[in-house]
Amino acid sequence: GMLILITVCVCTLLHPWPSQAAPNIVILIIDDLKPVLGCYGDKAALTPNIDSLAGRGVVFNHAYVQQAVCGPSRTSFLTSRRPDTTRLYDFGSYWRNHAGNFTTLPQYFKENGYRTVSMGKVFHPGISSNHSDDQPYSWTDPPYHPPAQEYKNSLVCLGTDGKLHKNVFCPVNVSSQPLQSLPDIQTAEKAVQFLQEPHEQPFLLAVGLHKPHIPHKFPAEYLNYHPIDSIKLAANGARPPKLPSIAWNPYKSLREREDVASSQPAWPWGPMDKDMARLIKQGYYSATTYMDSLVGRMVQQLDNNTMLVLLGDHGWSLGEHGEWCKMSNFEEAVRVPLIFVPPGKLGSFSHIDVTTDTLDHPYTPTKHIDSFVSLVSLFPSLVDLAGLPGVAACKPETSQATQLCTEGRSWARLLVEPGSGWPDVAFSQYPRPSIYPRYDSDLPKERDIRYMGYSVRWRQKGEKSGWRCTVWMGFKARPKPEPDMTDIAGIELYDHQHDKGENNNLAKDKAHLGKIQQCMDLITKYIQT
Asked: Of 70, 325, 394, 519, which residue is the catalytic one?
């Protein structure tokens, strides 16, 4: 009964919609998006549409993914189970066959009277969603994939030599692209079309946009908003001297791009050539402004009976620590934007087109929630906010065999009473094949995983910023996950109060033995439960 009570009070306090009208739900999943948004205080970002959304809702300052790579992260937050339960650490298995027949977020809404619709990249495509986006379970309609995505790796990037290449930096003229479009433009158009139709039943629309995932292919005019001489390289651009070698991801997917390859970053530590680094960062910010505009075009179609959540599936290093891409346990890779807008706020939204609109859009101060939350908790939170029957917590010993339960913790009540008795702790993890970086360190296949880095971000009562601690330990993935805490391959400890950038690893500092012990206790408990 308790859960239902909370649900009701959250609903009435936040948005007293009439009980007969179930809210429509829109989930915007942005690939590889770290919080490079105006509403997160990034002065270099130009994201007026997402900032305008944020001004109507709440911004979570500390939202964390459970593994910083697309497939495992998406499978985790769409099933509300941790990677050790989904047993997906790479892209090589489908949870229903490999781990358990877990009910997904869209499936639960579908079973509760919603029409569920997927457009673009929602589940990770391929075997990890059974080559079908988890059909027939999750979606009412056949999932939509933009036809232009077939050309995602085509040679369309104009190089300085005037020839076409497979580059990471890839501003394009849209009209000269295959199909005269780009995948995210097609997805946004499809979503707009869907939203303009009359709807008989409440819907849950999940839209996955690809950018700012590499290659940074976007309409070239978006470069104008991020001129190359305005791009500042990361202040902490060097590899930290006390970083354990196992923590390093050698960013192989970037090295394979022709423009990065020709700049010849040394293997495995780099550094990246400074001019190349600037271009990657310029491309990332420009692609994000392009994506923001598409978000605005879709949101303009929403009415007041709609609630929205926007999130990134994991972060992305932009040269901090000399690192690039995701695939690590750094804050840069595991912290994501998470923005929730309740019903009653979206009907008046209008699209801001930076290419024609010269107005200055000062960022509206927004309600920020400072509690630490995890994306594994998205499913039970949306269920509570929509007023559906709550999802029970999984029991550790039976989670694998339970179809419907959550390994997260609904953050719905934080919207009403921020922080009250909420445990500020978030766990992430990342596998490695070896202690020293090798060709598959970024994304080892399940059978090659030998170590797991369990990372905990926590803050105790009275602390302002808290800590991050990562313990790299021996690990067997098969036949079932077996971490070995007696085989430690590296430890990282960062004091966020004095070291937000996670540059100074305090793990060997005798003064912090107590913190290391706390960290070990938290991780042990996480592994056991």
From this structure: 70
